[in-house]
Amino acid sequence: MSENPLNRLPFSVLDLATVGEGTTPADTFRNSLDLARHVERLGYTRFWVSEHHNMAGVASSAPPVLIGYLAGGTTTLRVGSGGIMLPNHSPLVVAEQMGTLATLYPGRIDIGLGRAPGTDPVASRAIRGVRFDAGQDFPRDIQQLQAYLSADNRNAPVRAIPGEGLDIPIYILGSSTESAYLAGLLGLPYAFASHFAPTQLFAALKRYRDNFRPSAVLQEPYAIACVNVVAADTDAEATRLGTTLQQLMLGVVTGKRQLMQPPVDSMDHLWSPAERQYVEQMLSVSFISGPEQLAKDLRHFLRQTGVNELMAVSHIYDHRARLKSYELLAGVLQGVAA
């Protein structure tokens, strides 16, 4: 790695299509497209959307549809899933849907795959039906998806049209060492969800690299770390903006999820000491500061992890402040004054 790990590091966006208090999913989608166009101009590499279900505050329940909307409104940005929860779907349907997108937007579509349901058990059963335990088929389903997308599948009795023969990059997503092992075994790039599951980050990266086997698509390990970033002109401003993220994670901890909330001056009246401890643990891989501190913290993180790419998710209530945050992050990572 270069002496300055911020130089020439690819940097990307994960967007959960979060719905803010007082707004609608339609507002969220318009803001997502505006953000995608913004980061495209700033030099970001890719823009991924995630799959979640049965959450009033998250509108990304249909990633392929949202990917098509975002890719159609941009020109060079790679757009993909971060991820599609593969056990929720037939590999053939995923191959056809993503194959359609890759045909419409050649060279710009990524397929990120996750094992989790992306929802609660009740909704998961509604989605998966008799395949409720389909998570155990994740390795086999990945290989089936790869087969459908390969040119060698042209003589098979079941074919993905469009999709067959297209070079669509596949990434394995994970928040534990299990998916890290699988990504290494299959020789695929790996993206770790340190934005909400930071405790296993280093163990997962080590297991991925230790078990990596070169493949037709990747000769060396390629690891992406997804992190929370809330950047502002000053540390104090970023700290206040970051209370939106803290409230979001508090909802996860307490089970009392709500729409994305505006920032507050203090969290003291919103959480107990125990809840604060849980939230801070979940957010231990978060960068909430002004540009100078952000550069120092990111440089330390990248030297520690050695990841090949940084992916940022920014839960910021005000859309203009979120645009500014990604602008400041780009400035830091490009080594220019932001």
UniProtKB/TrEMBL annotation:
GO molecular function terms attached to this record: oxidoreductase activity, acting on paired donors, with incorporation or reduction of molecular oxygen
Domain of life: Bacteria
Gene3D superfamilies from the UniProt entry: Luciferase-like domain
Domain Luciferase-like: 11-308
One annotated Gene Ontology cellular component of this protein: cytosol
Family: To bacterial alkanal monooxygenase alpha and beta chains.
Annotated protein name in UniProt: Luciferase-like monooxygenase
Organism: Neolewinella marina
